[in-house]
Amino acid sequence: MNAPAPTLTDLVTGPVLEGDDPRVAAEVAGFNTAHTPRPALVVGATCAADVAVAVRWATAHGLRVSVQSTGHGLTSDLAGSVLVTTRRMSGVVVDPVSRSARVGAGVRWAQVIEAAAPFGLAPLSGSSSAVGVVGYTLGGGLGPLARRYGFAADHVRSVQLVTATGEVRHVDAIGDPELFWALRGGKGNFGIVTEIEFGLVPVATLYGGGIFFPGAAAADVLHAYRTWVDTLPEETTTSVALLRLPPLPELPEPLRGQFVVHLRVAHLGTADEGAALLAPMRAVAAPLMDLVAEMPFAAVDSIHMDPTEPMPVWDRGATLRELPAEAVDALLAVAGPDVQVPLIMVEVRHLGGAVGRPARVPSAVAGRDAAFSLLAVGPMAGPLAETMPSITQAVVDRMAPWAGRGALLNFLGQAGPERVAALWDDADRARLLAVRRALDPDRVFSPGQALPG
Ligand SMILES: Cc1cc2nc3c(=O)[nH]c(=O)nc-3n(C[C@H](O)[C@H](O)[C@H](O)COP(=O)(O)OP(=O)(O)OC[C@H]3O[C@@H](n4cnc5c(N)ncnc54)[C@H](O)[C@@H]3O)c2cc1C
What family name appears in the similarity comment (predicted)? Predict the structure, then answer.
């Protein structure tokens, strides 16, 4: 008598969940609660072999494959796909000699920061250490050290990738330069990354934090900011955000329920040097709170103070070629303190420096030539869920006269394939599509931001 054919559960080490199994909701819960993932099946992968089996099983059953780590970049309900969750792939190995880290697909930045700090090293993480390493890095990855060290993707040394055929591949600049180029900036379009190795930088402390100005000073702060950034060295990375803060008791009293302007600063240098650079901004208006001081890199989240609790959000980004006075006026007209608009945040991040130069090993990161990145974020709940896409789009549209090409991929927000493809010039778009078509001709993978065709 023949033994019954093994089921998917028999073939993978991690859990296989489907249907109305109550564990599905906990398995797919992520940061952005605007979307409730409804995959056909979830594989809680523990290793590359689990991912490979899940991909082969999905293709054998004519299903697409999606992947989720933290849900910070969740842009759809992933309906009908085989969803690979990666949180069990949580290994972190830091090598202080080669100044590098090798981490599993489910690792968040906080784990790398903690593991690297004892060696006086830091990763090119972003504004929130709760974000996943892989999704962030494949999308470029712009953080508080960006002007000095560039995008996180620029520091990737190798990647372990499960392809559409279920093959586990080591990808680096020597063995597979074209795929290595495409992966670093083209995000999840080429397969599922199961492990990533990247360089760390020698940063133990910095002069950084945030200054909160009252809404009444918004015009003065933004106009001062746009000229101040031209005076900054590459060691200084900054951004400024218009925040409409909720009246939550956990917020400090001066900020609770207020419209505030949040200047964020990360300076790699001494406190004296940093304070001298910051002096012109400190002189613009009396702050509600000034939290800029010398700090360990491990406290990097205190610069942006991003929310950490899951919330329903919609975001839309753009890049700007320049920020002249008229652009600041336009931004204030659409999102400033005198406008009644239910946005949570409109943020302008200063680019340039190492961000503006090609990576040592060229990558597909789009948006390098921009001077600023713009991001509008709003709540995607209740009646606002209907209007938030057009409210955030209106911010981007108002800034169109100064816009660059598209957005940084990590800040694009939910977008169809044509909009994703428009981030690259014709030559790079053709290269990316060629890699994708060679590697995944049947479009097995269904990433958050998918390339067309
Ligand atoms: C609060 C907050 C702060 C942020 N700050 C920054 C910032 O400072 N700088 C910045 O550049 N971005 C920032 N982002 C954007 C963030 O980098 C992207 O949303 C990123 O995609 C999140 O990755 P994740 O794995 O955490 O999220 P997930 O939602 O789990 O994944 C999002 C997408 O990443 C891809 N992906 C994830 N894992 C894999 C994998 N193993 N293999 C292949 N593809 C994979 C897939 O396309 C997936 O759809 C922020 C987002 C939030 C919500």
Answer: Belongs to the oxygen-dependent FAD-linked oxidoreductase family.
Burial class (CB in 10 A: 0-12, 13-18, 19+), 311: middle
pLDDT greater than 70 at residue 349? yes
Give 392's contacts (C-beta < 8 A, 6+ positions apart).
Answer: 314, 315, 316, 343, 376, 377, 378, 413
CA 294 to each of CA 38, 205, 232, 299, 310: distance values in angstroms, whole numbers, following the listed order: 45, 7, 18, 10, 30
Q: What number is the average pLDDT over the span 427-441?
A: 97
What is the 127 CA–ligand 1 centroid distance (Å)?
A: 12
CA 265 distance to own-chain centroid: 18
Q: What is the DSSP letter of 30?
A: -
- In the predicted structure, residue 378 carries a pLDDT above the cut 70: yes
* Rounded average pLDDT over 278-292: 98
- Domains of the chain, with CATH numbers? 13-85 (3.30.43.10), 92-202 (3.30.465.10), 205-411 (3.40.462.20)
Which atom of ligand 1 is the closest one to the Cα of 315?
53
Q: Which atom of ligand 1 is nearest to the CA of 307?
A: 1
386: how many CB neighbours lie within 10 A of its CB? 9
Residue 261 clears pLDDT 90, i.e. is over it = yes
Whether residue 67 has its Cβ less than 6 Å from ligand 1: yes
* 174 token code pair: 């020597």
